[in-house]
Amino acid sequence: MEIKKKIWSIIEGNQAELIILKSTNEDKLDFEISFTNIGASIVNFKIQNKNGELLDILYKKDNPEDYFFNEDKSYMGSIVGRVASLVSFGHFEIKEDEINKEYKLSKNLFGVHHMHGGFFGLNRKIWNVTECNISDKNEANITFSIISKDNEEGYPGNLNISVNYQVKIFSNEKKLEFSYRILTKPDKTTIINIINHAYWNLNGIFNSIDEMEIKLNSKQYIKINYFKFIIQTLISKLRIKKYFKLFPIEIKNCNENGLNFENPMKFKDIFKIFGDLDTNFLLENYDNYEKPAELKLTDLIYVGFLSSKKSGLKMELYTTEPSITIFSGNNMKSFNKKCKKHFGVCLETMKPPNAINIPQFANWIKFKPNENYLHYTKFIFTIEK
């Protein structure tokens, strides 16, 4: 494989870089993967399909400025946080020294809630490129770092965050491993739940995911009572009440709605019996979850896989996280003229949305001073004829 780095743009006086990693004639499997330091984002992901063709399987934006300003609110391919997804009413409390301390975050969703790290989250930062090399002919590492300062978007504590993307290829088989590792350590008690927000399609971009299959190591999901949530949001918007301590959720069994992920399911069948997906699924044995202090590959949680008969590609997932939010591209038609609903899927390995305001999950995203935060997710790509 080979690696190249070039200046992509100058944004608000900062140098935006594009890093391109691609296969050579010596490699068993053809691929091309690109990254940018804007939001530490994955920009491009092409891989060989069953016909030997290079297939584009990850959505990207048209130009570097689109990543930085994120006007379509897609967060496409970017690192999202400090806390991904929702913090209801932009509010949380942390108990320190037997005293509950209240924190108020920026409210970038309806002017009521905090979403995906706020107005100027990690996706809208120009990160430093701290590593960009091929350690041997079969492994490449690209690492980005950024400092998120105390009180940024309302979050307590300074964070020095690093994101490492690693690509491994194999000399004796058509297989590619792609992983990302997110590390930080706060200097104050705070909340952290950082993710990558890539949109995948193993059929190839600008195609429906209907015929793609998914298998998931989950028997339960978090159901939000959207009626109560909307009423609470309106009440808060009208300033009748500041916030609600209880967030309206239930933990439901998948089989109650006809979802049985023990066998692969086509997305079109999921849409018929369940509807669009913007759903957090709790992975098997989530109730025994403990925050990892260090990476032990033997302790990774098996998430499941995506597969496409059209391309022959299979993508297996492993993670340190206790749940995964699956978003089936329900609003993709607003991203690009070529995009339509259900043209991609986000696989957001994470702690559950709004965890800090749900008592049974709150400790999962709460980190004390000098406590290690580690999020690791690995994808294994293979070709099935």
Tell me what you see in this structure.
- The protein has 385 residues and is mainly beta.
- It has 3 helices and 28 strands.
- The protein is globular and about 65 Å long.
- The longest helix is centred in the middle third of the chain and has 12 residues, at 226-237.
- The protein has helices at 64-69, 226-237, 267-273, and strands spanning 2-11, 14-22, 31-36, 41-48, 54-56, 79-80, 86-87, 91-96, 99-104, 114-115, 128-136, 139-148, 159-169, 175-184, 190-191, 195-196, 199-200, 213-216, 218-224, 249-253, 265-266, 278-283, 301-307, 313-319, 323-327, 345-350, 366-367, 373-383.
- A hairpin with a 5-residue loop joins strand 13 and strand 14 (175-184).
- It has a 9-stranded antiparallel beta sheet. A 6-stranded antiparallel beta sheet has the order 17-26-25-22-19-20, with no helix packed on it. A 5-stranded antiparallel beta sheet has the order 1-2-3-4-5.
- The chain has one domain (2-383): Beta-galactosidase, Chain A, domain 5, CATH 2.70.98.
- 6% of the residues lie in helices and 42% in strands.
Briefly, what is this?
This protein has 385 residues and is mainly beta. The chain is built from three helices and 28 strands.
Keywords for this structure?
nine-stranded antiparallel beta sheet, 42% strand, 6% helix, mainly beta, six-stranded antiparallel beta sheet, globular, 385 residues, 28 strands, Beta-galactosidase, Chain A, domain 5, 3 helices
